[in-house]
Predict the structure.
Amino acid sequence: MKLSGNNTALRNFSALVDFSNLINSSLDLDFALNNLMLTCFGKFHTTKGIVCLVDENGLLQHKISKGYLGEIAEKIPAINASEIDTCEVLKKFKEENNIPICKKLISTSGIVGVIFLGEKITKLPYEKEDHEFLTTIINIASSAIENSQIVAKLKTANRNLDGKVNQLSSLFDLSKEFSGILEENMISKMVVFSVIGQMMVSKYAVLTCYDDEISILDSKINNDDLTKALSGCGLKNISSTLTKTEIEKNNKEIFDLGIELIIPMQIKGENKGLILLGKRISGAEYSNSDIEYISSVGSLAIISIENAKLFKERLEKEKIEKDLELAKNIQKNLLPKKFPKLNSFEISAFNETARQVGGDYYDVVKLDKNRTLFAIGDVSGKGVQAALIMANVQAFLKSICKQNLPLDKSTDLINDLVSENTSGGGFITFFWGILNDETKELTYVNAGHNPPLLIRHGEITKLKKGGMILGVMETLVPYEAEIIQLEKDDVIVLFTDGITEAMDTEMVEFSDERLEEISLKYASLPAYELTSKIMEDVKVFTSGAEQSDDITSLIVKVK
Amino acid sequence: MTDFNVSVREIGSVNVIDLKGYLDAHTAPELENAFDKLIKENRYSIVVNFTDLAYISSAGLGVFMAFVETMRENEGDIKFSNMTENVFNIFDLLGFPMLYEFFKEETEAIQKYNEKVKS
């Protein structure tokens, strides 16, 4: 009898050692639970059992059951672990299902679960030593279960960490790539691939909104539908991420297209674009960490898109500037580089354009042995249009002076031609004259130009004879010419309104009076010195202010 | 900059894309072009062979996401084969096995297409 008692104890002991070895040999939870159950079945000759574990919320969750037909799992009340001993529903459940054994699995950190065992096949009750044996294997099992739960948690944590590392490396990858790319569509491609790859999404759209204009860079949604849905939703006002519930509530049209996440791409708090994403294939919701990732990609992208835009604008601007520089050179070549040497006259000129191309014009052309033509003009407006009209006038002048027509007739003609070519209101103030080197006679026509000053013995006469500004309409009233016999030391000062209307920093004009004053003061100087004096005075006067108009002067002095 | 190469082989009715080198944000558009070309030629049954692919970033994975629906709508698919463990881990991490079929050998993937044709 004693021997048989020892044998039982020995058998129990060896079963415990086996169980302990087995259950601790694996960190797999299901394996541990399965073994716990089978060991109990073998030892107690029962065929029914359930194990529930405590989940992260402290509630009992069915984990494994054997021997029951139908859905036993659903019948177990999801109660708090602390209520196991007191819960009436649980008590009722045990009675209904004929479960005599209900034991808590307790580890060092508390209750990890509970095991239910059905009655023995023999219908005999569980003896005291059965209870003792059960307590022992449960103690062993509990710590094994806890270990495997911790390992499972670690695995999840590790995987989440891996995911985060992957997102970071993808961001790092992108930030390197973005910096070198200046094409908008390439940038949007990279955004799309990185986001849909990382999130497993197949429905998406990337768009920019600059100056209230929406442009879709890339999309897997019908563009017409998308544009229509977007037009009603005040994109500029989306200042933070919109999640599924918010979109469903506030942007029904967009939600109906299958969009579940909208992430703004902002620069300095201003919305420059949006990333729209559909449902994730995995069915998972977008987590905060996902949204952070997409936002980061968006921020990187929008800065690159902005850079690309600025770069493109800069290129275009540079191209225009280069074209204008070319135009300026051409225009400079249209003006005379040197003046003919005359016996009776000195001629000097100065010209400075306010912009790259200007509308002022002057010319000196030797017609024959004795006669020399000189001209000054100012095309209305500025920039390219003025420069083109000026070039046009220059061409007329060059060809017309070969015709050997009287100056007044030539003026009629040149007005007709300019009128024809300046639709849209361009016109020209123009003055020209012919100097006779032998007789010192001046013939001139003034077509609406600021009257040149004829200075003789300290007196100024203004050369006004002529007619209308060129280009307003074709010649109805013929232009009139005036002939003046010049004398030694006479000075003619021709200028454009760029001089008399030049402004100082206080917006005060240089004025006709000041020009007349300085011309009189230095009339005795040679032509080129008088020119410099006038220009210096204008420079001093306007010092610090921006030159707003072309400045031209032409001076003829009689020797 | 980075070394990457895409080439396409035709094996019966199946198109095998061989990838080589580094597939990242920078090189993803090259793979995109290859897919675009296949679609233009109405070739929708694709096996991507990863034997020589050393690295893939999530932008690389994005290309497959961008095209898988088009392929399936046209009774084709994108299947993957011959992945190294490193490359597979990234696909696995981002949940791709849920949506795509992975094969150890290219022939198995081709076989899968051919079975479907027979049945």
Q: What stands out?
A: Chain A is about 45% helix and 25% strand. The longest strand of chain A covers residues 259-267. Chain A has a mean pLDDT of 87.
